[in-house]
């Protein structure tokens, strides 16, 4: 690699939230492996927290994809009327234990920091020690689809609500920060804003992007594929497509670095 990115540097990896689009993170990680780039520190929000945990755990690319393909997003047996949310997020714990049997941050092979939103206090909080699975579930519990997760008597939900690109833990740890942002905001035509659903989605996307903009610019290397915007956040049929887009985009950028 070039002097700007070398194997003897301390590398940090930031993975944003973004639903199914987050499969592009896995594509990036595959490209990193092929170009002999390894992150020592990982941070993530929402789906980025899940991918980051699998990467930090040493799971293969096939295992990462299998996790998202086999873990049910919606299951009628998980429906709840006793909690705030359509799906009882606690019911997913058994699926996570198959991948994280020791259930601690300390059991991971890399230092991992994930963020979740304390919806009672209104704060974004980082988790990096102790119990792993419940904070992971909390970070990805998008309301109102999934119920909040209770941790130490407080209710936590999706990290992307308040911090969709959690790069903060890396600033004092790394020589080089690689960012992967799948919450893409590109120019739209008027025809793409024809109803309230489209308008709401656009406004939400703009708010999330605005909150992350300065942090995105602070990365030494940032991956953003505009093609991901055409993939629905909950479209499980697009898992392979998002993964391939992320891989192809990363390979092109790494190849450009090598040639520079």
UniProtKB/TrEMBL annotation:
<feature type="active site" description="Proton acceptor">
    <location>
        <position position="158"/>
    </location>
</feature>
<feature type="active site" description="Nucleophile">
    <location>
        <position position="46"/>
    </location>
</feature>
<keyword id="KW-0443">Lipid metabolism</keyword>
<dbReference type="Pfam" id="PF01734">
    <property type="entry name" value="Patatin"/>
</dbReference>
<feature type="domain" description="PNPLA">
    <location>
        <begin position="13"/>
        <end position="171"/>
    </location>
</feature>
<feature type="short sequence motif" description="DGA/G">
    <location>
        <begin position="158"/>
        <end position="160"/>
    </location>
</feature>
<dbReference type="InterPro" id="IPR002641">
    <property type="entry name" value="PNPLA_dom"/>
</dbReference>
<feature type="short sequence motif" description="GXSXG">
    <location>
        <begin position="44"/>
        <end position="48"/>
    </location>
</feature>
<protein>
    <submittedName>
        <fullName>NTE family protein</fullName>
    </submittedName>
</protein>
<feature type="short sequence motif" description="GXGXXG">
    <location>
        <begin position="17"/>
        <end position="22"/>
    </location>
</feature>
<dbReference type="GO" id="GO:0016787">
    <property type="term" value="F:hydrolase activity"/>
</dbReference>
<dbReference type="GO" id="GO:0016042">
    <property type="term" value="P:lipid catabolic process"/>
</dbReference>
<dbReference type="InterPro" id="IPR016035">
    <property type="entry name" value="Acyl_Trfase/lysoPLipase"/>
</dbReference>
<keyword id="KW-0442">Lipid degradation</keyword>
<dbReference type="InterPro" id="IPR050301">
    <property type="entry name" value="NTE"/>
</dbReference>
<keyword id="KW-0378">Hydrolase</keyword>
């Amino acid at each position: 690699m070039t002097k700007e990115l070398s194997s003897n540097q301390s590398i940090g990896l930031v993975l944003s939230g973004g639903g199914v689009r987050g499969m592009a993170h896995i594509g990036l990680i595959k490209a990193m492996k092929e170009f002999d780039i390894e992150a020592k520190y990982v941070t993530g929000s929402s789906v980025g927290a899940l991918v980051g945990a699998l990467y930090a755990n040493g799971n293969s690319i096939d295992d990462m994809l299998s996790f998202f393909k086999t873990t049910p997003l919606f299951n009628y047996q998980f429906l709840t009327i006793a909690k705030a949310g359509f799906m009882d997020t606690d019911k997913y714990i058994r699926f996570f234990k198959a991948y994280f049997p020791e259930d601690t941050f300390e059991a991971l092979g890399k230092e991992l920091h994930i963020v979740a939103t304390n919806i009672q206090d209104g704060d974004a909080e980082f988790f990096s020690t102790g119990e792993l699975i419940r904070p992971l579930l909390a970070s990805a519990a998008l309301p109102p689809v999934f119920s909040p997760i209770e941790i130490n008597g407080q209710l936590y939900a999706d990290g992307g609500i308040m911090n969709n690109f959690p790069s903060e833990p890396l600033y004092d740890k790394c020589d080089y920060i690689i960012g992967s942002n799948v919450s893409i905001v590109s120019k739209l035509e008027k025809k793409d804003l024809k109803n309230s659903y489209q308008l709401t989605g656009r406004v939400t996307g703009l708010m999330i992007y605005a909150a992350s903009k300065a942090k995105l610019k602070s990365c030494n290397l940032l991956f953003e594929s505009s093609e991901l915007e055409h993939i629905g956040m909950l479209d499980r049929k697009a898992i392979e497509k998002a993964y391939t887009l992320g891989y192809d985009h990363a390979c092109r950028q790494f190849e450009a670095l090598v040639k520079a």
